[in-house]
Amino acid sequence: MAEEPKKIGRVVVDRNLCIGAATCVVAAAEVFELDAENKAVMKLKGGTKNSGPAEKKDLESDAIGDDMLLTAAQSCPTRAIFLYDEEGKQVYP
Ligand code: SF4
Predict the structure, then answer these.
(1) How many Å is the Cα radius of gyration of the chain?
(2) Is the pTM here over 0.85, yes or no?
(3) Could you tell me if the CB of 24 is within 6 A of ligand 1?
């Protein structure tokens, strides 16, 4: 795996902020999709899907990079995707 400058440990979608714009789905379809309420959920190992908090290691896709998660979070018009590093410190927004 490539070098990851920012070690992302956890991902959370704030369902109150999410407006279903789905740009996160476009940016990282391996991770995000919209549920029946048009809110973003993450695809987790074992087939569960929820808005988190999700540990990065529990995401279904092992290929997902921190840069892609950051791009997806930055693409969200309402900044509904929160990223935390492995120490629990907020990385974005
Ligand atoms: S980009 Fe943001 S608002 Fe749009 S679906 Fe994803 S989390 Fe929700």
Answers:
(1) 12
(2) yes
(3) yes
Tell me the pLDDT of the chain (93 aa) as tens digits.
555 466 999 999 999 999 999 999 999 999 999 999 999 999 999 999 999 999 999 999 998 999 999 999 999 999 999 999 999 999 999
Does residue 3 lie within any of the structural domains? Answer: no
Establish if 2 belongs to a structural domain: no
Range of the domain at 80: 8-92
Q: Is 67 helix (H, G, I), strand (E, B) or coil?
A: helix
Residue to mutate (ligand 1; options 11, 15, 30, 32; most atoms within 8 A of CB): 32
Whether the bond into 93 is cis, omega within 30 of 0 = yes
CATH number of the domain that 50 lies in?
A: 3.30.70.20
Residue 72 lies in a domain: yes
